[in-house]
Amino acid sequence: MMGPSHALSGAAAWLAGSWALDQFANVSQTPLEVAVGTAICAGGALLPDLDMSGKVTRNQGGATVARTFGVASLFVAEVVEKFSLGVYTATKLKRDPRRDNGHRTFTHTLPFCGLLAWGTTALADNYGYWAVIGIVFFMSGLALRGLFDDWAERAGWVIVTLASGAIAWFTAANLPSDRGYPLLGLAVGVGCFVHILGDMITKNGVPILWPIPVRRRMWMMVGIPNSMAVKVGGKVEVVILRTAFTVISLLSIGGLFVPGVLERFNLDVWASK
């Protein structure tokens, strides 16, 4: 799927999960915590595509996520793509085809999701408040690039970077400073996993079972048959899936916050009588 669809799917997954936890596990979050988690998950849903590099010196090409912070993020994407290709080449078996790029290899696996989730959790837990602010800055930039793709394309990476800084500053000013927020690692991991699920319904699939060899192949691509696959950028993705993700997000937001607003309104009405 395209970047905006991935970002929307991440946001929808986190909002729906937050609603479910609130309803069935009595796990409540403040509006700011929900917003931060949603941004992290939406950004995390773009991270696997850092394995698609572009033309770094020209600030062109690459996946949506690679263009978030201009040349800097394109360079990171170039490194990730080469690293992923290296992992593929080092671990492939005889039946795995030869490749000249690393797209849809290591970053589209469950170990990658787990590694990012663990790393983010460790960073937030061990280094606390300021690590959280750094994570929010980076991931909110990815979320902005994905969720508001047309605006971000017109505004350019400098504006996106400044907007990410503003979000990080607002978060720093309003989140309690005595917590590490390790739950952010879960948001990143969920976002990456949702990305993988999204790519499984498009052509060619993803190596979700790696590093388990299947049919003497280490990098078996798993997904629905190509004849049934969703066309990247087609009407099913752009109209149906994005609409569904948007509806899920809005319903989840309503379920999370409307009851509290109504309860407070009723209390105010009774207090005024």
From TrEMBL:
Keywords: Hydrolase, Membrane, Transmembrane, Transmembrane helix. It holds the Pfam family YdjM. InterPro entries: YdjM-like. The chain crosses the membrane at residues 127-148, 155-175, 181-198, 240-262. This is LexA-binding, inner membrane-associated putative hydrolase. The keyword Membrane applies. It comes from Actinoplanes xinjiangensis. GO terms for molecular function: hydrolase activity.
